[in-house]
Write a structure and sequence with these properties.
By secondary structure, the chain is α+β, with helices and mostly antiparallel strands. It is built from 9 helices and 9 strands. The strands form 3 sheets. Strands 1-2-3-5-4 form a 5-stranded antiparallel sheet, covered by helices on one side. A two-stranded antiparallel sheet has the order 6-8.
Length: about 280
């Protein structure tokens, strides 16, 4: 038996989506305000006439793993976290393109994303209440359990994946993960709002090595050293743990690894942080 060819890469910022939006409106019984349309590489979102938000995502079939990809719907069961309320969802298979579409209707965000896209290079000067809500939400999330396994970058996270990516970049290390907790798995400045904290885009959440979320937010802050240090201080229990140090290295593989970009403002601070992290790991 021969395997099916992989789905062609699609960028929804450039692809026509009107027919897909029409289908979502019929399925969910809403009207999408096209003037509020936000288009990203693999998702599209818009406000409805009911004062809600609909997010539509497309994934190739090979990126739909065994746990399904109803993350936003499944996250409705999580408690103690500042996140949008989920109302309804619909999904279907595009057989011609070997892809799956899913749309979820949620409450509107309480504010704008801290950094909608690209690298954060200016301190957003977040209020103290924002940091308190971040900490209480991530702590509440980590304390809950699920059968889901996190899929950062839409790829399931496993011990083997951590070992492969970390050792390929930094050489032989003991990468054994000791503590697995529940994580959002796409923690970056595009997925949190300000001035009120709210964590959204729950497609990839699940069990992951301790510190994955904290390391991701820290890593996405490296171009603003004071902000990175604030994240490190606020999430120090995670980031100073052995698993947290490994997750920090795991994040840094994307910055200093084989695809390092000399124009990336995170590159120089990431290289310095890698040296610190390796020293701390070796001292344990």
């Amino acid at each position: 038996m021969t395997s099916s060819p992989p789905s062609a890469s699609v960028d929804l910022r450039r692809e026509p989506v009107e027919e897909v939006l029409d289908r979502v409106e019929r399925s969910l019984g809403v009207h999408l305000d096209r003037e509020t349309l936000v288009r990203k590489r693999r998702s599209v979102g818009a406000q409805t006439d009911s004062g809600t938000w609909v997010r539509l995502e497309r994934r190739p079939l090979e990126r739909i793993d065994g746990q399904g990809w109803n993350g936003t719907e499944a996250a409705a069961a999580l408690v103690g976290i500042a996140k949008p309320e989920w109302f309804a969802g619909t999904a279907w298979r595009d057989t011609a393109a070997r892809a799956m579409w899913r749309a979820d209707e949620t409450s509107l965000l309480p504010g704008a994303p801290v950094k909608p896209g690209g690298t954060l290079t200016v301190d957003p000067e977040l209020p103290e209440a924002w940091w308190a809500a971040l900490n209480s939400s991530l702590d509440a999330l980590a304390a809950q359990r699920t059968t889901r396994v996190a899929t950062p970058d839409t790829v399931t996270i496993t011990q083997a994946r951590v070992t492969e990516e970390v050792t390929a970049t930094f050489g032989a290390l003991d990468t054994t993960i000791e503590d697995w907790t529940t994580a959002h798995a796409d923690m970056n400045w595009a997925n949190v709002t300000s001035p009120s904290f709210c964590l959204f885009d729950w497609e990839d959440w699940g069990m992951a090595p301790r510190g994955l979320d904290s390391a991701s937010l820290w890593g996405n802050s490296l171009a603003v050293p004071a902000l990175a240090e604030r994240v490190r201080h606020e999430r120090r229990e995670d980031l100073e743990s052995r698993d947290g140090l490994l997750m920090s290295l795991f994040y840094c593989t994307k910055v200093v690894g084989r695809y390092a970009d000399e124009a990336d403002p995170k590159l120089k601070p990431a290289r310095l942080e890698v040296e610190r992290i390796l020293r701390e790991l070796q001292a344990r």
